[in-house]
Amino acid sequence: MISIKGLRKQYVTKERQIIAVDDLDLDIKEGEIFGVIGYSGAGKSTFIRLINRLEEPSGGSVTIGDKDITRLKKNDLRIARQDIGMVFQHFNLLWSRTVAENIAFPLEIAGMSKTDRKQRVQELIDLVGLTGREDAYPSELSGGQKQRVGIARSLANKPKLLLCDEATSALDPETTTSILDLLVDINEKMGLTIILITHEMQVIRKICHRVAVMEEGKVVEMGDVLDVFLHPKQQITKKFVSQVMGNTEEEDAIPSMLQDNPEGKLIKLQFIGESANKALISQLAKQFAIDINIIQGKITNTKAGSYGTLFVQITGEDAEIDRAILYVQTKTSVELEVILNV
Amino acid sequence: MFENVNMDELLTATNETFYMTIISLLGTLVIGILLGLLLFLTARGGIWENKVINAITASVVNVFRSIPFIILILLLFPFTNFLIGTIRGPSAALPALIIGSAPFYARLVEIAFREVDKGVIEAAKSIGAKTSTIIFKVLIPESLPALVSGLTVTAIALIGYTAMAGIIGAGGLGDYAYFYGFQRRNFDLVFICTIIILIIVFIIQFIGDFITNKIDKR
């Protein structure tokens, strides 16, 4: 649905030129929630503004549907923008307008009649869960409520694409969750394509289907969220994954495990997708004459299922341990690795 | 105590002051907003970014703001004479009053617009707003409290200007206080004119503050 080719943005200052977005190629599918993660200064904020040309690209193209956004004339661009919603980190509501009037703003711009407007605004208010707050001013709302107004406003003209610029970065964790749930809800109900940028891996983990990691204006890693979580390749990606997972460099911890657990086998279990939901550990303990001691681990949920790593120590007869290992390797989707044979 | 005060004359003078203040305030409002808008929109990073127009507008504004008002009136005599047909009376004071205070208000308008959250303007652009929509539905409503309080300050400065214009025969309370009061040594008259001007200033300030508070929903 969205095809980005060779997208570039450079700023020229007196001393030097800064390349904010460097030759970016991306394809985003219809109905997808696509996340872009990076530290501040990575160019992600510029990138999302290039999509609806709040920033003019220095080169390359952005095609949404069959429209090449980068080639549109000023007036056509204005009309195209009515089909692209945008949600901002700091909400950017008009303080002089009530909730209902803020949401009606894009409808006024699109030239909708007053009666239609009123009806549509009410639908949107109900959709984002602000029923009863129609006549409140933004200053009377909490951060989460303001962002709900922002989302309702961005959806007013029934866009096909929603751009989220750090939409949850100014919110506390609990409110973030409720806003993310709302975005997923909208994505599923309306089949809306969402591109979001963030510096929080939590956001990517909770709602994104695919993720691109940006560093110095380039996409350094991209893929399905689960793949990226499981097999982060770049150093920066590993750092982001560790935001959610704790330390991903588990090998560092092995010497200390050895000291504390000098018998049996030390085993690393990697859970991918649904298998984390099975009661694997108790199953093994019941079926085989072994003892399982959980040493450390972390399991987390992503949009595509659960994922995590568990370090366990198995003690018992060697033959029995081997049978248990074989069972895990053949009967489940859990990846097993014997780290240490004592 | 106020044996030299003629109520009819005082009333006429007060009316003339009101007349000059209100008409020139309206002129100042229109021209000030237009100039302020031009300054804001043509500034660096503005919607109509244009160095040349911005520099020209800024210098015009600065020049007229720098000329002391009493000198401005004298400089404008030929222009006033051409426009109004006379250089005496309240109407003849209007061009100088407007030209003297509009640049001042223009700067206040520019500052008010600059205080509008850039993000809100960006949001309006992102939903496909035209420049005119941004001006009338974002910039002006979002800066309205600052525009009103700026106008209050300007109105009070204008009352001072009308009194100065009075010295060279524009009519109004300044004229009355100077020619009938000061020059004839009727100091009670100077005093009463001062009191009336003070009352007008207080009333304007009160109304301005009231409206500003009323419309500010931040």
Structure description:
The complex is a heterodimer of chains A (342) and B (218). With 342 residues, chain A is α/β, with parallel strands linked by helices. Chain A is built from twelve helices and 14 strands. Chain A has three domains: 1-83 and 159-220, Rossmann fold (3-Layer(aba) Sandwich); 90-158, no CATH class; 250-341, ACT domain (Alpha-Beta Plaits). The radius of gyration of chain A is 24 Å and the shape is elongated. Chain B has one domain: MetI-like fold (Orthogonal Bundle). Chain B is built from nine helices and no strands. Chain B is elongated and about 70 Å long. The model of chain B has no long low-confidence stretch (mean pLDDT 93). At the A-B interface, helix 2, strand 6 and helix 3 of A face helix 6 and helix 7 of B. Chain A: One of its GO terms (cellular component) is plasma membrane. Chain A: GO terms for molecular function: ATP binding; ATP hydrolysis activity. Chain A: InterPro entries: AAA+_ATPase, ABC_transporter-like_ATP-bd, ABC_transporter-like_CS, ACT-like_dom_sf, MetN_ABC, MetN_ABC_transporter-like, NIL_domain, P-loop_NTPase. Chain A: This is Methionine import ATP-binding protein MetN 3.
Give descriptors for this structure.
heterodimer, A: 342 residues, alpha/beta, Rossmann fold, 4-stranded antiparallel sheet, 12 helices, 14 strands, 37% helix, 31% strand, elongated, B: 218 residues, mainly alpha, MetI-like fold, 82% helix, ATP binding (chain A), nucleotide-binding (chain A), cell membrane (chain A)
